[in-house]
Structures are given as C-alpha cells and as structure tokens.
Amino acid sequence: MQYNIAVIPGDGIGPEIITEARKVLDRIGTKYGHSFLYTEVLMGGVSIDATGVPLTDEALEIAKNSDSVLLGAVGGNVGQSNWYSLPPNLRPEAGLLAIRKGLNLFANIRPAILFDELKGACPLKDEIIGGGFDFVVMRELTGGLYFGERKTVEENGIRKATDTLVYDENEIRRIAKWAFEIAMKRNKKVCSVDKANVLDSSRLWRQITKEVAKDYPEVELSDMLVDNCAMQLVKDPRQFDVILTENMFGDILSDEASMITGSIGMLASASLGDTKLGLYEPSHGSAPDIAGQNKANPIATILSAAMMLRYSFDLEQEADQIEAAVKAVLKKGYRTVDIMSEGMRLVGTKEMGDLIVSEL
Ligand code: NAI
Ligand code: MG
C-alpha cells in the first residue's frame, strides 16, 4: 500500500529529527511492503524566509491532500529574518495554528509514558511510579476558552476583560468519540476531567460523555474534577488510561503529565480530526540552542511517526514494532544528551536513529 505523507521539517532541530523519523519509516516500509512517499512542505521560519509568511495556501493545500502530516518543529531565531521582531500572526509559530485550524484537527493526543529505563529522570518517588505508567491525555484543541468570544473594556474608569468558555454538544461528542476509540485500542478506561461542580459547560461535557459511553459498553467511564486530577497525576499516575478533557484543562494537565515522564525529547503527539488525516509532531520545540549539532533526541519524532502508522494508517503492528525498537535501544544503554545518565552510552541524533533502524 502507498501512503502520501506531507513532511514539514521546519526550523532548528526540525530537519535533523525528521531525517531520523524518515529512516525509521523507510525501514518499516521495506520490512512490511508499504511505500511511504514524502512531499516536503515549508512552514515556520524557513517559509517566512522563502515566501514572507509562515504557511502559504499552497503548502496548506499539499497537507490537506496528503494521507497525513509529519512535523518537526518551528520557531527560534536562526533564519535570515529576525523572526522574533515579527507580529504574532506572521511569526513561525503562527504556521502551527494555521495548519491545525486549516485541517480541522480538534483532538490532541499526548501519550505520557514512563519508560522503565528512564525511571531515574522521573521526579516522582519510586513507590509512586512502581512499574511505570502509560496513559494518554486527550485534549480538545479547537474550542473552549481559547476560541470563545473575548473583550476588554473600560467602564467607569475600571478596566475589565472577559473570556468565554463555550462548547456545543457536537464539539464534545466528536472528541469524546475519539477518546473512547483510543481507549478501545488500549486498556478500555476513560477518565473525563471537568469542573462540573461550578461550570455549565462542564455539566454539558459530563452529560454528552455519558451519552457517547453508551456506544462503548466495554469501556469504563469515570469523571474527575480538574483540581483533583492535577493532584492525582502526581499522587497515583498509574490509575489513568485515557484522560479526556477540554482545551484549557488539557493544556495545563498535559504539561503536568509530560513533566512526570522526565524528558521532553521523548514525548510524541498526534492531532486528529474527523478524517484519517492527522498531524504528528514531537511535543518539544525547535531547540535552537542545540540545532545543527547532532545532539537532539529524535525519539519523540520517531514515536510520533509510530502514532501516525497507528491512527492514520491503521498499521498497529508496525507502530508496536517501532515502540519496541525504541525500548530495546534504551535498554541497551544508548542515550542522547537530554536523557544521559551515569554509566550509559552517549550517542548523537543520527546514531540514535541508526540504532533504532537496526533494531527493526
Ligand atoms: P524547546 O522545546 O525548543 O526547548 C526547550 C529545551 O529543551 C532546550 O534546552 C532544548 O535544547 C531542549 N530540547 C527540546 N527538544 C529536545 C530534543 N529533541 N532533544 C534534546 N533536547 C531538546 O522550547 P523553547 O526553547 O521554549 O522554544 C524554542 C522555539 O521553539 C521557540 O521559538 C518556540 O516558540 C518554538 N516551539 C515550537 C513548537 C512546535 O513547533 N510545535 C512547540 C514549542 C515551542
Ligand atoms: Mg501549553
């Protein structure tokens, strides 16, 4: 089978980590008889330097017509133009918002996995992490507080600002469905996180989530208030399988979840919509401080490519293989600088990619 992938290397370490992810995909292609065709797309600072804007209509069109999008990272200040001096809507990061919106990617999934080999990097106590944890945070990405009506006014000399948290039932239903679908492929538990003791939008969230749950009798649904969830993530992260939540709660909780896994260089993500087309990218940025030095950890991007195989192409076994290969290389003691610890073997970006490929 042939798959068309729009590839966006972007800025900083982006091109280096994308090169490694492509090597891994190509190995999987050879092994299983798939052909992955890549179309390179400019986005971010490199696009600003070439075209004046962070994402052109033509670039977005290529992404729309592909089977999925694999992204490195954008931003930093390493191009010809001084990107930081540009207005927000013309900066490299504006390309990210434009592509998520342009592809209608309303569901953001961030796995939080504590690899056995990296337990030392986890800030939680041994008795809490036990045998390690593996859950995903499913964050609604195109609604809620960040997209509701907002205004700032001055009344009688008092400055006043308003943001609005709005969800309609369709927006809740479609993300809830995604969460249940993903739970079906995992340990069949969804914890829906809200603030239903205070917010109307959360009460609707709870109601709709329960309605969706009727279509998934095998999945166990629980509700949790967001403040409690913030505590539970550090008290007992092993209780979670899929955490489903609205945009702002998910923004905050997914950062908390990523911290307890230890390293930003390990964290993959997927942004999904109504179709099979998804956007896959590491959770970190363009790391301009280490760009071009063969120091970046490519694992987050490689694991994002594995998520692409699983969610966009339904290549479950191939995705499992990539994840197993990553674990095997870590088990053998190879580390990039961000996850390096005493007694381990330090390798660069390219070597880490090669090791994972040879494991496959
Ligand atoms: P960052 O994630 O790029 O870097 C933070 C720290 O983590 C740095 O010390 C960096 O060297 C290290 N780091 C990040 N990824 C790594 C990897 N794969 N291997 C080893 N070390 C790694 O965040 P920062 O510095 O706040 O942002 C840099 C630029 O990236 C900014 O312009 C920011 O707007 C942009 N950014 C882009 C994102 C995206 O494209 N999705 C997401 C976050 C930030
Ligand atoms: Mg955030």
Automatic annotation (TrEMBL):
Biological role: Catalyzes the oxidation of 3-carboxy-2-hydroxy-4-methylpentanoate (3-isopropylmalate) to 3-carboxy-4-methyl-2-oxopentanoate. The product decarboxylates to 4-methyl-2 oxopentanoate.
Cofactor: Mg(2+); Mn(2+)
PANTHER family: 3-ISOPROPYLMALATE DEHYDROGENASE (PTHR42979:SF1)
The reaction(s) this protein catalyses: (2R,3S)-3-isopropylmalate + NAD(+) = 4-methyl-2-oxopentanoate + CO2 + NADH
Record's keyword terms, sorted: Amino-acid biosynthesis, Branched-chain amino acid biosynthesis, Cytoplasm, Leucine biosynthesis, Magnesium, Manganese, Metal-binding, NAD, Oxidoreductase
EC number: 1.1.1.85
Annotated residues for binding of NAD(+): G285, S286, A287, P288, D289, I290, A291, G292, Q293, N294, K295, A296, N297
Entry protein name: 3-isopropylmalate dehydrogenase
A cellular component term, taken from the record's GO annotations: cytosol
Taxonomy of the source species: Bacteria, Bacillati, Bacillota, Clostridia, Lachnospirales
Keyword Cytoplasm applies: yes
Naturally occurring in which organism (per UniProt): Mobilitalea sibirica
Record-marked site positions (Important for catalysis): Y146, K195
Positions bound to Mg(2+): D227, D251, D255
